[in-house]
Amino acid sequence: QKLDAVVKRIEAAYRAARTMQADFVSDSLGGPQKNKGKVKVRKPNLFRLEMSGPQSMLAVSDGKTAFLYMKAQNLYMKMPAIGADKLFGPAFMVTGLGIGAFFDAAFFAKLKEHSVKWSYLGAVMVEGMSCDVLSMKRPSGDGEGKLYVLPNGIIRRTSGVTKRREGTDRRQATLRNIVLNKPIDPAAFRFTPPGG
Question: Do β-strands 167-180 and 19-28 pair in parallel, antiparallel, or remain unpaired?
Fold first, then answer.
């Protein structure tokens, strides 16, 4: 079955990857919001996402402590790094970057345990590159996410639709200039709280 083959390809790719770096663009579809930035991740749970635009922010995990820094407000939150897959993965899987798959090769199996329904939609071109498209729907029926998977198993794009009382939220994020298994300076995963 094509769905199982693509999922196995994703799991194998992320199991083999030790680090990943990429640029990204994140859009709120149907709205003016467009954010861009860079993401750096290293197993087991080191993470850095720096985003500019309307939602300017920095998310960092050094493996022990995680920080979320809202630049415009000069505010930050500090929390235990219980695992970047738990802190950041689920949110980015649907609305952003699919980082959960990087940190946990069994991410898809865990989603299935939560009754998320998966299906294979076919292949499309994403910025000149062929991608297999997977759909995931919540059992509540209030949302759908899509993963656009490169031939090497890396997730190139994610999109998500969530229905809320105030309307439908549509988001999409695309990774560009993806680099795997290149050493990352440990300083990238440290955060110094702002003064003031």
Answer: antiparallel
